[in-house]
Each structure stands twice: as structure tokens, then as C-alpha cells.
Amino acid sequence: MAPFLAVQGISKNFRGLRAVSDVSFEMPKGAIYALIGPNGAGKTTTFNMIAGAFSPDAGRIVLDGDDLTGRRPDLICHAGVGRTFQVVKPFRGLTVEDNVAVGALRWTGDIEEARAYAIETLALLGLDDKRALTPEHVTLPDRKRLEVARALATRPKLLLLDEVMAGLRPTETDRMVATFKEINAKTGLTILLIEHVMRAVMALSQHVIVLNHGEKIAAGTPQEVVRDPAVVECYLGEAAL
Amino acid sequence: MIRRLVGQANARTLWALAALLAALIAAPAFANDYVLTVLVLALYYAYTGQAWNLMLGFAGLLSIGQAMFVGLGAYAAAGLFVQFGVPPIAGVFLSIVVACIAGAIVGYLAFRFAIGGVYFALLTIAFSEFTRILIDNWAYLGGSRGLFLKVSDLRHWDLINLRGPPQMFYYILLVLTVAVFLFCRYILNSKIGYYWQAIREDEEAAQAIGIDTFRYKIYAVVISSGISGIAGTIYAFYYNNLFPETVFAISGSVDMLLGTVVGGVGTLFGPIFGALILTPLGEALTAATASVGIPGIKQFFWGLVVAAIVLVQPAGLWPLVYRGLRLGGRRMRPPPVLRGGNAVGQPAVGREEEGV
Q1: H or E stretch including B235?
Q2: Residue A8 distance to chain B (closest CA, Å)
């Protein structure tokens, strides 16, 4: 069976700097995978290529039989990819509810329906009591949740989460992990996450891909990866063992 | 649709609007010729300000070339009338089409090459100038010597040919202002309005949730220019003469946006409120100093007012009044251009979000 997401040998250079070099991986439908690695390893660049913010210099990205390579970000969203931004990008002039409702307008033209869906999605992420506030009046963890809610509201098939647990307290991380597990179990949503919080990576992902200097240096189950000497050396450090 | 129009407004707001509308309907009965001219101007700026607000306040696109859209509309309807005797009631459609095409061209060029922020504003000024030079050299439309409409009997209302007393123009502009206000309210609460606001706040995030930002920005420019084109028809038949130097002057574009800046960019009622306050003030000041004869006093005063607004109350005066009167409805914020985003229209870089 063809994989749900196939990333085939993608590369990206920025003025001679090789940000991502010949990275390939595949994901089955309904899986949760993590992309880890030290800062500057090319994780966000990989995300940006999948989401269409940059087009790859080489390689192909295929989602569910649909070639996404080099397509515009809005069309990739319509093809079923939802993403969050590492540095959150809320619509600051809109309320939390409207932020999410705009996402739902991807598949409906009806404002009331979009609002209703926004309220449901916000409830799922525990933001229902912040609905009427503008993003600058909620905490950073809440803004991260808002980022997730807005992406979810577009009804993606594949959700790209870029460090949404950074800055959360351990209990908040656990809650977020539980939420993603619940969404994944209920809807079969495929999730690819970039994460530094190993607690979340270990609890959430079935498979981990490790990048370093733009190259894939390891892949496997979380347990395998944390024992890989190359990964320990470049990223986790001895203490992680 | 009615429900959506009235939807979020509370009873207080509706009563306040009804009272204002009644006052505006009754006003000509109490106004002398001079006051009436000022009122016509105020409504003209309320209407054109609303069109400008749709671009900047809703979609975050700063245009300083609104005079081009109005001017093209004016020349289209006047040209048809003078050369072919086509009445403005039909000519106005050409005004809309010509203005929309101009808007589409400017928008296409700007957004195809990712020109935003103040650079977009400069592009609108440049195109306004191109158009002025074009009309200046187009003898068929009178060129630099001007295009004149025959002035006939001014006592009777002739709506088809837009020949009539100032009262007629006042009421036409009142109807147009109310219509465009309702239209803006409707569109702001529809998908396109939501999409504009998303684009205004963060274009990259807007794209990531599936918004074709190029297409929706073009919509904003084209709709705004179409609305402005209608104002052009009114302008041509109210003044009966068109000179490229006056019609396409940058100061004309600036006059159209001042009321909205004072009233509140991005608010629905700001353009009307600002124009109704600023226009009479400017005219009163001109009249008051007429005997002393200080040249440019109006511009100087407007400069002061705008500087004060931008420094003290960048959201405009309307939000203050609105809070003071405890009116309900939608809360709006000024666009990032007026909130300290940087010059190229990008939002200020995330502060505390950076890093972990």
C-alpha cells in the first residue's frame, strides 16, 4: 500500500547554506510521528516545505496520492495539510473564537457554521472560556493552543505541529498529549510534530525521525532512537540515558 | 441577510443610528445654500472614506490613490454624457467598470510582485499620476483644458441625467452613504470580510489556513475602486467641470482618507463620523479666517488634527464615542499599519514568543 505521506529526497538551500539535504520518510495514515534534532537541524524548514511556505530545491512530497511539491500554501491547506507556527501567528485583531472560525471557513461559507465549529474545537483544547478575548489577552500556552485550534478547524488530514508544547508546564504537556491522542483516536488524524520536549515525544509518537545538519541521521521507535549513540551525541546528551 | 445586518447591533445603537439618519434627512430643510454645500461635501467624504476604509481598515491595504478611481469614474460617466449623450444613470455602470479595471491592474501588479505596506501606497500614487498625465493628453476628454458638462435648469430634479439642485445631490449621497455602510457591514461579517481581516493581521498565517491571499486582496481593491467609481459619477455631475489637475490630485486622495483616519480606521462607522465632524470644521475654519485671508489654513488645521489623532488616539475618535455611549456591536481594531507594524506591512516580529 502506498504511504499516506511520502517525503522523497527533499533538499533546500538558503544562499549556499544547506538547510535540508536529501531527507526522506514515509508515514502511514493515522500515525503520529515526531521530528527531532538540535536547533538548526532543518526541522522547521522541512515543515515549511511540506506546508508550501518554501518549495524544495529537489525531491517530492506526496500526500494521499496528491503531489504537493512546490504548491502554494493555501492550496496545500486545501489538500489537507494543517500547520502551526513555531513563533505563534494569531490574528491579533480578531477574538480567539473568530481566529478559529476563519480556519473553519476553509470548508464552509457559512459564518454561523464556522463559529459553531470553532466553539467545538476550542472546547476540545480547553479554550472555551477564552473565546471572547483577543489573542494578546491570553497566555503564551493558550496562544499555542489557539494555533492548534485554528489549524484543526481547517479539518486537515495531516496536522503539522511545530513546537506547540514548548514553554508548557509538565502537567500542561500531559494534557496536550492526551488531547492529541484523543483527536488521533477519534478522527484518525495523522500528526507530524516537531518537539524538543522529550516527555511529549516519548508519550505521543510511534516513530521518531532525527535530523542533524539538515540530514536524517536516525529513525525508529522512540525507545530505539533515544538509545542511538549518534542521536545521543548530537542532541540528547549523555544525561538522557 | 436582514438578520445579519441588524444581528449584532443592540437597540441603543439602532436608535442612535435612526436619530442620526432622521437628522440627516431633515438637515437640508434647515440649511442655507452654504451649509448645504458643506453637508454635500461631508457626505461625499463619508462615502469615499468608507471605500478607502474597506481597503485599509478591513484588508490592511494602504491606498493613497483613491482619486484615481473616483477620477476615472468621473471621466467615464462625463465622457459618455458629453460625447454620446448617455445619461449618467447608465454611465455610472461604465464608471464602475473602468474604476474596477484600474483597481484590478494596480492590485494585480502589486500583489503579483508581493508589494505591500507603504510600497503599495506609493504604487497607488504613481498610478494616480499616470492616469492624470494620460487624461491630460487626451483631447477627446478635454485634455488639460478640462471637460465641461452643460449646466441647465437647476431647479428640477432630473435623476436620470443628474441635473438638479444641491438638495438632489445631497440626498443621492445620503442614500449612497447609507447603502455602502450597510454593504460594508454585511461584507465584513461574511467569509470575504473574515478573510480580509485575517490577511490584514498576518498574511502567512492566512495562507496557511487556505486563504488565497492574492485573490482576496484583489477583491478588496476592486470592490473599493468600484465604490469609488460611483462617487466619480456624482462628482462629475455635481461640479460640471473636470480638470485632470484637480481630479487626480494627491490632495484629493488625502482628503478622502482624512475623515476616516479621524473617525477610526477599521471601524464601520468611523468614516461617516469622521467626515461629518472634520468637513464642517475645516470649512468653518476657512470661513472664519476668510476676512484675514490666511492661505492654506484648512490644510494646516487638518495637518494638526491628523497629527494629534495619530499620536494620541490612533484608533480614531469613533471608538471613544462608541464606548462613551455604550453602544454594542462589533469591536474593531486599527490595522497593523497604524499599530506599529513595520513599514513593509509585516507584523512586528513576535516578542515573547521567540525562543523557548
Answers
A1: helix B213-239
A2: 22
